[in-house]
Specification:
This protein has one domain: TerB-like, CATH 1.10.3680. 67% of the residues lie in helices and 0% in strands. It has helices at 2-5, 27-35, 41-58, 66-80, 84-116, 119-133, 141-153, 158-167, 173-179. Helix 2 runs antiparallel to helix 5 (84-116), helix 3 packs across helix 5 and helix 4 crosses helix 5. The radius of gyration is 16 Å and the shape is globular.
């Protein structure tokens, strides 16, 4: 996972914010921050928003599977350099917030993350979202639409999104249907 988000050295903070980042916490981010008091405040804001965005991607089909949850926990623990118990808590809060307030919070949290993250962090976040949605080896049209929306809100160009999509083209249900390879077909 560290390869996806940066160096293999745990002392490096792959999700460190840009210094000029504005503040504007949403309730979702503030709630997760309270659970991570021992982590640097700027880093935990970024981590809270990151966990929420991953949960948002997983919830794009209106259900978050156990495989998706475990993958999100693993990514959050690895990237946040958090003990497993804290990562589980962060992910559960993010999942619950996404489920309860998704329509209201999705854009706000993603916009806040985009304002505080570097371009590389935004790219890696979209890659992680694709990885999570593809945990079941299928990316539906609804899931892909949400991934596209997340990428747009994070400021990725169409070309950047196409590169990431290309890495997961074998999981796209539309392509599988064209080739006659869906599980239900």
């Amino acid at each position: 996972m560290r390869r996806l988000f940066g160096s293999n050295k745990p002392e490096e903070q792959p999700l460190s914010p840009r210094p000029e980042a504005p503040s504007g916490d949403t309730e979702t981010v503030r709630r997760i921050i309270r659970e991570l008091e021992q982590v640097d405040p700027e880093r935990r804001k970024l981590l809270a928003a990151f966990a929420y965005i991953l949960s948002r991607a997983a919830h794009s089909d209106l259900a978050v599977s156990e495989d998706e949850t475990r993958l999100i926990e693993s990514i959050v623990a690895d990237i946040g350099v958090l003990p497993e118990a804290q990562a589980v808590l962060v992910v559960e809060i993010a999942k619950n917030q996404s489920d309860l307030y998704g329509g209201t919070e999705d854009y706000l949290v993603t916009r806040e993350f985009a304002q505080n993250a570097t371009q590389e962090q935004r790219l890696r976040t979209v890659r992680a979202c694709f990885m999570i949605v593809a945990a079941d080896h299928e990316i539906t049209a609804e899931e892909y639409a949400e991934l596209t929306q997340i990428a747009t809100e994070l400021g990725l160009s169409r070309e950047e999104l196409n590169v990431i999509r290309g890495e997961y083209k074998e999981n796209l249900v539309a392509i599988k249907k064209m080739r006659g390879k869906t599980q239900s077909a």
